[in-house]
Amino acid sequence: MAETRPDGLEGDGAARMNGAESLVRTLVGGGVEVCFANPGTSEMHFVAALDRVDGMRCVLCLFEGGATGAADGYARMADKPASTLLHLGPGLGNGLANLHNARRARSPVVNIVGEHATYHRAFDAPLTSDIEAIAGAVSAWVRTSPDSRQVAQDGAAAVAAARTAPGQVATLILPADTAWGEGGPVAPVPAAPARAQVDDSRIAAAAAALRSGQPAVLFLGGRAVREEGLRLADRIAAKTGVRLLAQVSNARMERGAGRVPIERLPYPVDQALAALAGTRHLIIVGTTVPVAFFAYPGKPSLLAPADCETSILAEPAEDQLDALRRLADELGADAPSARPALARPVPPTTGGLVPDTIARTLGALLPEGAIVCDESVSTGRTFFPMTQAAAPHDWLQLSGGSIGLGIPMATGAAIACPDRKVVNLQADGSGLYTAQSLWTQARENLDVLTLIWANRSYAILRAELAHVGANPGRKALDMLSLDNPPVDWVALARGYGVEARRVSDLGDFVTVLRAALARKGPFLVEVAL
Amino acid sequence: MAETRPDGLEGDGAARMNGAESLVRTLVGGGVEVCFANPGTSEMHFVAALDRVDGMRCVLCLFEGGATGAADGYARMADKPASTLLHLGPGLGNGLANLHNARRARSPVVNIVGEHATYHRAFDAPLTSDIEAIAGAVSAWVRTSPDSRQVAQDGAAAVAAARTAPGQVATLILPADTAWGEGGPVAPVPAAPARAQVDDSRIAAAAAALRSGQPAVLFLGGRAVREEGLRLADRIAAKTGVRLLAQVSNARMERGAGRVPIERLPYPVDQALAALAGTRHLIIVGTTVPVAFFAYPGKPSLLAPADCETSILAEPAEDQLDALRRLADELGADAPSARPALARPVPPTTGGLVPDTIARTLGALLPEGAIVCDESVSTGRTFFPMTQAAAPHDWLQLSGGSIGLGIPMATGAAIACPDRKVVNLQADGSGLYTAQSLWTQARENLDVLTLIWANRSYAILRAELAHVGANPGRKALDMLSLDNPPVDWVALARGYGVEARRVSDLGDFVTVLRAALARKGPFLVEVAL
Q: Are the Cβ atoms of A137 and B129 closer than 8 angstroms?
């Protein structure tokens, strides 16, 4: 029963479809169930196809950085990619910073970027730009579909690339005529291959280092800082005395009461150097060698001591749990550390509203299963240790250092885990890059509590000025101040449709936090520091 | 008198300085007086240098798209570049969309992008990315300074590149050690060369076409749509009957009572084709051949009829006023059109609050010297013709099609022209990309009135869905709706420190607009449509 369709294709249902529809069906078939979208004209056929295909939830974002940051947060919690839908080079540009973060978090993401029709590009219309060049800066895989019949296969290849361990950003550029032209058959997405297991020589080298009796650090990231990886590392530590240390910023840690506590390498370069001083063996699992976040005059870029021997137990793409398990077996490490259970903090009643009391309050009140999206920057330096004994939770950090991830990441995490409370610990300066994602939280009624640390400055840069040896005057310090005018986060949140409160003393903070954690749906608390 | 400085350099004032200071002094010497900044750690030496050098106004932006859009607006009104200060690849990425717009507006802009120290790059720290690749997508000139002593020369080259006619985006990437290391001498910026004059053959070809008696269009952009260019074009039209038509989107038009009125090529493809139908000679001045903004199934990319002869009188980089003057002389076109003065509209009192009555109100009330930053998108289709007889004003449009320029552009225009009223005609969906710039308007107390057209949808995409032949269902239409929840622009503006009002009927709109135009400083009106 042929039907005439407005795109000029005639067909009988799924048997005849345009390229956009073949792509959406391929994505859904490959397990991509969510699209974080900020579409434009060149993406209209993709958008229209969403109504003809079941299984793709489309989440509208007001700004592309909201879409890409949400895709990162989703991937960290779902362990599979979402798609984004972005409008040509500028739309991709707006999403670039959070794709950079996703790349550093090794999150799988499938970007669909609309492009001018293939024949239209030569005319250099105003929105024309070199999309592949922009995409290349953040993507492990980039392809421009040449033909509508090819789109489904390209989409399958994009999903496969995104799912390639440890997780990659894949960008498929979709010229408009490949979306509206006749599509090829839906393409199957191959199952993601198992992670590679490491050679026995790596196990042997790590075991030898740990048996040396010299000071050693097991430096962990990736899957090694989730619950099972930490449990294995803890057995190794109990047996050998190796010190466990996580990298500075982690895509997702599983922690809290009943799980293995672990410190992170500090961000400030002097503290990081001190944390690794004296280490003779650094064994790396699921991350890379520790380097300074920035260069500072007279300080080294590499943080481990010069006489420290570094070995890789498992690369980020390799099977870290298998490697840890084999190392534990090799060492005969079969028992956990004897460690007294940490006492959960109680909410403080004195001490004022300062980072330390906030940290203790969070440690006391974080609910079981909470997903903490931490973009606290300088305010939050004590939050991590003080929440070690909180109810079991996940902790997601800013992996790529590009601020403006927190609110979008919380949005995506909430889409991935609708039954869990998402708590976004958010520095104010960083939050102002992508506050539009609050609107998406309201639109989708996501269970996200945003806590804004309103110190009204780029506080981290005040410290960095000194670290880099710059001598600030009045104009320079003025560039780090956000107090003129003060940003009213309660008004901003309401502007985006999210209820909000401001608190400025400790008692109020504890009361409001309890109430906010007990309710469902988006809420924001501006915490005046 | 040597002094010890915190950067380790010893020197006697300006005779010894670090690379950052040599750059700031070079920029100031080259006439770059404003820096729109969103700095991070790698830019701290540049920021600190601002206190040691007079003559650079540093304007803080909460988001990089605000900085780059402001630089575009500033350049359009000042006819010279401002600088931006951006933090590594992700900061540049956040500014990319409005740099794309600046590129399309042919605005001179000097980007300073901080980068890791040269020796730190190899360690692939989290913020490392391919900055040159990202910059290349929007810049006519890109250079990474290799050495602190080279920075001043590179800065001078960047300014020279930005000032190269018709105006270019130049991006100087500044590794941190080139900022903190010892600088070379301040480098002189060569004077911008005069624009090239066109060959006599171009004048002769245009004159021959105009003498043919066949339907002809003088298609204008660039300097040709400012007051003097339009006056010259009008003399040619009065003599030959050629029709004057401006390109769709213009960086800056000078118009209003006493100036030559001119229509623009319409944006919708069918209207654009109709506007050029029957044209036998298309003579282009200061722009390029008219092409469809997007491709649409079954419609051409080139908008002029197939049998139309196209000739270039003056390229964007060439001297368009000289070319028009010589063409007028060649034709003996020495008198303006006999054209009755247009009557300035009076504010309507009936008809409801709809685009047509808004247009008439704007035509009646725009103050002399107003700078109109128009990102009205679909709401504003009638605003342009109805303001033809308003008091003399400038009209700035979205040149590159990447929405989210309006609020930043208004910010930059107000910095360039502190004695003029800036009126930002702003679609709501577009304004939500970069609303943070309202905070900069408050911080700098800029005389900007923002009028938000609150239709709570991506209205233009509803039309585009039909134009591209896509058949939307409920999910697709939902992706174009911004009404759930409604964005409260009055709350958003207050959140950023800008006073605001909401109006929902015509009488209120006229009253509030009068009052808002009479006051100084930033103000926002949400106009409920």
A: yes
